[in-house]
């Protein structure tokens, strides 16, 4: 059965949840975990960059890129450029966030890539990069033929949703993994920090849910969203 609810209400909820999730992860990493730093004797400050950039830079900006066609009132060509740029920024910030995790591990004497979170995370960032490159080459420059673009749109959208769902799952695994480490290190399992981390994960999943609902819901206006090479 086709969805009859328009996308705009879902995009509004997505924006609100995105702001809430961003504030929550910043409160966690700055207030509870001591702040952010690329270089510090306190190696935990290096790690803190990872959840902040992966959530705000990768999940939230990536979600905003996905719903840009439904959330913005401008012409299709303008929205297409915003879609491209937001995904590029999300990808770059995601790579920096992963670099911060590796830097923290290396400087703390911790092994890399031993957890399911890290395995799936590396796969997600690679798939995200492949998706972006494919979209750039086919829909922007040099651009495929009209037939290639038309045939690629549904697959591009479907694969993008698949990668985004994987990213959400990876984020949830990351929150779980880090909170488990913190609880084993002694923080109160029913304390305010533990609740904040769990609720941040829940809000993140809800944000992603409304992003997907926005993406699959009909637009307010008639727009074929076809892609033309620039």
From TrEMBL:
Please list every transmembrane segment annotated in the UniProt record, as residue ranges: 12-33, 45-72, 84-102, 114-141, 153-175, 195-216
* One CC-aspect GO term: membrane
Residue ranges of domain Cytochrome b561 in the record: 13-216
Q: What does the UniProt keyword field contain?
A: Electron transport, Heme, Iron, Membrane, Metal-binding, Transmembrane, Transmembrane helix, Transport
Source domain of life is Eukaryota
The molecular function terms in GO held by this entry are: metal ion binding; oxidoreductase activity
User: What cofactors are annotated for this protein?
Assistant: heme b
Compartment(s) where it occurs, according to its Swiss-Prot or TrEMBL record: Membrane
Q: What's a Pfam family in this record?
A: Cytochrom_B561
> How is it placed in the membrane, per its record?
Multi-pass membrane protein
Does the entry feature the keyword Cytoplasm, yes or no?
Answer: no
Instruction: Classify the main location.
Output: membrane
Q: What is this protein identified as?
A: Cytochrome b561 domain-containing protein
Q: What's the source species for this entry? A: Papaver somniferum (Opium poppy)
């Amino acid at each position: 059965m086709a969805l009859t609810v328009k996308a705009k209400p879902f995009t509004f909820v997505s924006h609100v949840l995105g702001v809430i999730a961003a504030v929550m992860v910043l409160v966690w990493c700055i207030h509870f975990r001591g702040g952010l730093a690329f270089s510090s004797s306190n190696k935990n400050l290096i790690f803190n960059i990872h959840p902040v950039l992966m959530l705000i830079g990768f999940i939230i900006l990536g979600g905003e890129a996905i719903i840009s066609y439904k959330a913005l009132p401008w012409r299709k060509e303008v929205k297409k450029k915003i879609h491209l740029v937001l995904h590029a920024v999300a990808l770059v910030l995601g790579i920096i966030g992963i670099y911060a995790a590796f830097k923290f591990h290396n400087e703390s004497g911790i092994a890399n890539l031993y957890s399911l979170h890290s395995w799936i995370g590396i796969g997600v960032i690679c798939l995200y990069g492949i998706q972006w490159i494919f979209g750039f080459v086919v829909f922007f420059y040099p651009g495929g033929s009209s037939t290639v673009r038309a045939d690629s749109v549904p697959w591009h959208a479907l694969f993008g949703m698949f990668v985004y769902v994987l990213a959400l799952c990876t984020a949830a695994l990351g929150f779980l993994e880090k909170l488990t480490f913190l609880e084993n290190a002694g923080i109160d399992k029913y304390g305010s920090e533990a609740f904040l981390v769990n609720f941040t994960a829940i809000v993140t999943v809800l944000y992603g849910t409304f992003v997907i609902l926005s993406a699959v819901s009909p637009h307010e206006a008639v727009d074929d969203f076809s892609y033309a090479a620039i």
